């Protein structure tokens, strides 16, 4: 089958972001849900990233066994403990604990540190209908695998959904998990149309209406473990500041990539840690705002 014609993506540059205007100051609450038994740090990375982009209030939800430690590690956040399945995953019953939080949040990030696609799918089925009708939702990690298998799970948040897949997750979202994703532009556009969501995939941002942007600032160092959790949190923080989802994805992706560029002289491309990106983001945003 021939590929559909795609217009050339608009380059994401500092000049374009300045033309759009600054992303604004924080005025909202971000809720990050994830942190299974084996991956509590993913929520920490996403949560701090959300604060770095301007969110005022941060709420973190992880399995109960990690809640106290996370509260000490991120004293700026309200931390909620969630029930844990036998597998160590966040239980589907966590929806009962999270009901009031998702109803009041200005942006919700679901996925960092989640494990067990079946348990995650059952959690999304119960939780997404409880999100306030005007609240944007970012899905990452195992949450993407869940909707890749069962796209109908995301229907309650269609039109305000933002997806941040890696190439493996993108293949699931395309319904072709056995096929490697090679053309990021075509893949992002197809995923955006298929799931009625804004998509941020390897520097490409696509919206359901067919608009496409591409950022060439990134480098291989951003493949470091936890980097995707940082990106998801950056997007969530910008969405809480009432930034349009596509522009939030462009701003977040560029800030993420530029933070990585700033680290290269100190860490090289192969010694970069995701947590180090967090301290660079505010400096990048200041530079972008000041021109």
Automatic annotation (TrEMBL):
InterPro entries: CARKD, Ribokinase-like
Binding site for AMP: 228
Tagged with keyword NAD: yes
Positions that bind (6S)-NADPHX: 42, 113, 229
Cofactor names: Mg(2+)
Top-level taxon of the source organism: Bacteria
Reaction(s) catalysed (UniProt annotation): (6S)-NADHX + ADP = AMP + phosphate + NADH + H(+); (6S)-NADPHX + ADP = AMP + phosphate + NADPH + H(+)
Keyword Iron: no
GO molecular function, one term: ADP-dependent NAD(P)H-hydrate dehydratase activity
Domain YjeF C-terminal: start-end pairs: 5-288
Gene Ontology BP annotations: metabolite repair; nicotinamide nucleotide metabolic process
Keywords per UniProt: ATP-binding, Lyase, NAD, NADP, Nucleotide-binding
Start and end residues of each stretch annotated as Disordered: 1-21
Broad class of enzyme this protein falls into: lyase
Similarity remark: Belongs to the NnrD/CARKD family.
Protein name (Swiss-Prot/TrEMBL): ADP-dependent (S)-NAD(P)H-hydrate dehydratase
Organism: Actinokineospora spheciospongiae
């Amino acid at each position: 089958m021939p590929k559909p014609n795609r217009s050339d993506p608009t380059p994401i540059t500092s000049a374009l972001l300045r033309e759009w205007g600054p992303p604004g100051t924080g005025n909202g609450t971000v809720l990050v849900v994830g942190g299974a038994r084996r991956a509590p740090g993913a929520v920490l990375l996403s949560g701090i990233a959300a604060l770095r982009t301007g969110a005022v209030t941060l709420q973190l939800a992880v399995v109960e066994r990690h809640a106290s430690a996370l509260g000490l590690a991120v004293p700026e956040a309200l931390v909620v403990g969630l029930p844990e399945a036998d597998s160590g995953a966040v239980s589907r019953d966590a929806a009962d604990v999270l009901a009031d939080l998702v109803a009041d949040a200005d942006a919700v990030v679901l996925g960092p540190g989640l494990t067990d696609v079946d348990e995650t799918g059952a959690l999304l089925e119960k939780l997404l209908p409880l999100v306030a009708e005007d609240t944007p939702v970012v899905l990452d990690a195992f949450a993407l695998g869940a909707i890749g298998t069962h796209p109908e799970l995301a229907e309650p948040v269609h039109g305000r959904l933002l997806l941040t897949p890696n190439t493996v997750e993108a293949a699931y979202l395309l319904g072709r998990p056995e096929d490697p994703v090679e053309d990021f532009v075509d893949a992002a556009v197809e995923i955006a149309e298929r799931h009625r969501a804004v998509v941020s995939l390897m520097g490409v941002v696509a919206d359901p209406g067919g608009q496409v942007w591409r950022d060439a600032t990134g480098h291989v160092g951003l493949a470091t473990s936890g980097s995707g959790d940082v990106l998801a949190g950056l997007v969530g923080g910008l969405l809480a500041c009432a930034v349009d989802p596509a522009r939030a994805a462009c701003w977040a992706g560029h800030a993420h990539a530029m933070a990585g560029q700033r680290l290269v002289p100190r860490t090289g491309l192969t010694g970069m840690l995701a947590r180090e990106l967090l301290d660079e983001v505010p400096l990048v945003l200041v530079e972008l705002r000041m021109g």
